[in-house]
Amino acid sequence: MNRKSTSRLWSWIALFGLLSTLVLAVGFGFGVADILSPASVPFTEMPSVQTPPVKETAQADEWLIATIGDSLTRGTGDGTGEGYVRRVVKMLDKVQDKPVTLLNNMAVNGMRADQLSERLNQESIGYVLKKANIVLLTIGGNDLFQSARSEQFGDQSLNQDTLLAKADQGVVHLKKVFAGIRKWNPDALIVYVGLYNPFTDLEEMREIGNNVVQKWNDAAFQMINKDKNMIMVPTFDLFQQNIGMYLSSDHFHPNGDGYQAIAERIVQSIR
Amino acid sequence: MSSLLPLIQNETIKVLKKKRFYVVLLILIVLIPVFTYAQMKIAQNNREKFNQDWRLELQQRITDIQNTLGSDRVPEEWKKYRRIMLQQLQYYLDHDVNPDEPNGVTFTRTFMDNAVTLFIPLLVMAIASDIVSSERSTGTIKMLLTRPVRRWKVLLSKWIVLMMFTGIIVILTALLAYLISGMVFGYGGWTFPIFTGFALSGTEVNFDTVHIVPSWMYMLMQCGLIWFSSVVVAALGFMISVLVRSTAASIVTLMATLIAGSILYNMASSWPTAKYLFMINLKLTDYLAGTPAPVEGMSLPFSLGVLAVWGIAGLFVAFRVFTKQDILN
Amino acid sequence: MNSAAAIVLSVQQVKKMIGRKLIIKNVTFDVRAGEIFGFLGPNGSGKTTTIRMLVDLIKPTEGRIQVCGFDVNRDPEKALRYVGSIVENPEMYNFLTGWENLDHFARMVPEIGDDRIHEVVEIVGLSNRIHDKVKTYSLGMRQRLGIAQALLGRPNLLILDEPTNGLDPLGIKELRAFIRTLADSGMAVFVSSHLLSEIQLMCDRVAIISRGEVLAVDDVEQLLTGRNQFVIWQAKPEKKARDILSASGAVTFFNREDEVIDEAVLVGVPDYAILTETQPESIAELNRKLMEAGVEVEGIQRIMPTLEQLFLEITEGERIE
């Protein structure tokens, strides 16, 4: 009879409710205990650091790209948000038969060479680099011009001697950066995008800027030249006369066209 | 002296026959697949983008957070929250554990974390708001209270039944989330390691007390904490149900409070007194996951205390009013 | 009536304040086993408030209510064991069947089993619809179900609030007979109503309440006998009849415009009819006088006084005394 099934249902529900409440109360007790005195609950263990093994993926039949560095690699200033990295990937995809994959863009805005060499010690960054067979990077702009930007082109910080001193310091770190990448991946093609002078249209800064950037690029070239699997893509000349066309409104980062120009150069040199 | 059991039987039968509980079930059965589908789409996207490697995806997430930290436009509050998240994600990556391992258990865990402030309270409210007020709005209270049974016993039986259904709702939400999402993500992952015990001080995370719990244990603790919050919500809903004659009015009252709470939650940092509100303290699971509390200085014992005071006060008012009140209409 | 029968319900000087207003000023009466006790008063006189106090829905501010010797407000668990009641409308759980409703209430009283439920369903004649949902019931069926739940606990006192509401004339007649059998079996039945005629037809004793005060408690017969009644005379020639009635000194005349008699009653009464108030005992005598004088009496119609009229008389009486 209908009535009997109702009375059976209620007792099942009541039993389920009672059990649920008991289970949840136990869970609540465990939860409180574990938060107040960590690892006091059964089935817990202490963690150990583990590095995942990387399979040998860097084969020639695939382009696996990892990118690292500063805001240029991030693509800051590009209205489309693509930066040179995505543009390179797209263009390579068109001109190449092999599949092109962007593994990771590990660039962080405002990064300097010393911070990057520090960052390269991280296992997790190394993991990505190990998987790649092409590494694209930009670094150095912030080493030279970070303070200049923040001080609104104040003449003090932009005198030639302080800038050259900064370049000398930065280059030391740049060397560590290259070594850091190589440590993780001895075989990958490393593409370093050289610096340009964002101040060529400022009369008092043009010459000083050019000197400092050229000094940096020279030093970088000297390091890169020692490794047959490293290339440097110059951008200095690209921006020398086209600063109005290629720079974004912050007067420091390239705009979409500027990134396009950089990307085309990279593709030309590695296709 | 009649015992409580028959009264509990009565109340259970009424809740079941009123079909409200089935509506709750239906809501779960409709909503969970929607979330599962959305989650599946995200997972698919990520897998395509990151060459099937969660480590790459996680690294990208970390880098993205690092980039927002550099921006001056991001409010300090968010930065604090993200700095902590960054350190935790990095910790997962360093220990080669995927915090979002795609399986039914992970989905359930995430779903429950998001359900605690609004969704589960809403389901509990569906039962609680009605349990006393409907007797008054339909006039059956006159039949109910003219029996040779003391009023506090009648109310106590209703409270016990409400507790019962609160437990059922929490368990069923987790169970259905697991069963439904498992169809897509697989039913594994019960022993997958979860890190807990991140000690927060300001924006720094102290990893000394971090330890591993298996997923099932984490979920048990998580559901337990959610249950406690739900019981407090049930107690307050119960009180409103006693005070307000109309079921709709009692739902609206508590829903408005909860929604106001979830809005306040994001602004609480600039209004420290808000930490004494029960709505701000509902996310007990934050203490388990190591997510920073909305107001500086909140801790698990503090939140438990605040919730307990609200809950007990709610029950006290409910019983006091119900036993003394004249039934005038 | 057997006035020696046990007192089942005793209400002693009950007062109730709601807010600052004294809603019930002074209510005192007893109800004995085996009698049908009417509780008569217009709407808003405090009837329902009093009934709610009898079943512990409202606590009196002062005074004492006892059922079978147990205080309703202090010891409801014992006192209400002896009471079955319908307060206002018999509102049951619509989403349950009739049977489930009875089962629900049976569980709240110790030692009431399925067989008792069968019994009361049999008594109120709902057997063939008892397993249908209450929301499908008509008003009459709900009344029956309400009575069934009131009888469930084999009460000594049955409290019915306006029980004829929503019933058709046949249903009302059945209900009256039914209540009489219950009383004959020894149950005390407390019936409230705002209709004097209903009380007169149903009850043995009556309490009249107005503005929160009980004005009189008496046997129904007692209450109505010895009081003037309205009598409508239709006689020709009118002038002569009026003179004779006037000469007898036993009647008081009224005009239609005085509105002492309900308009509905006067529909179809010819213009020449004479409206009077007189002692019922003198009607026969007056009739004889009219006939002797050669007046053709076409009709003599007695009209029950309305409740308002009764109140007026009772309060006037008090003033005189």
UniProtKB/TrEMBL annotation, chain A:
Q: Which ranges carry the SGNH hydrolase-type esterase domain? A: 68-261
Coiled-coil positions are none
Q: What SUPFAM superfamilies does this protein's entry cite? A: SGNH hydrolase
> Which InterPro entries does the annotation name?
Ester_Hydrolysis_Enzymes, SGNH_hydro, SGNH_hydro_sf
Q: What is this protein called?
A: GDSL-type esterase/lipase family protein
From TrEMBL, chain B:
Question: What domain of life does the native source organism fall in?
Answer: Bacteria
Task: Supply the alphabetized keyword list.
Answer: Membrane, Transmembrane, Transmembrane helix
Instruction: Mark the transmembrane ranges.
Output: 21-40, 115-133, 154-180, 225-244, 251-268, 302-322
According to UniProt, the name of this protein is ABC transporter permease
Q: Which organism is it from?
A: Paenibacillus profundus
UniProtKB/TrEMBL annotation, chain C:
**Keyword Cytoplasm (UniProt):** no
Enumerate the spans annotated as ABC transporter domain: 9-236
Q: InterPro entries this protein is in?
A: AAA+_ATPase (IPR003593), ABC_transporter-like_ATP-bd (IPR003439), ABC_transporter-like_CS (IPR017871), P-loop_NTPase (IPR027417)
Quote the protein name from its UniProt record: ABC transporter ATP-binding protein
Recorded GO molecular functions are: ATP binding
Q: Which Pfam families match?
A: ABC_tran (PF00005)
Q: Which UniProt keywords apply?
A: ATP-binding, Nucleotide-binding, Transport
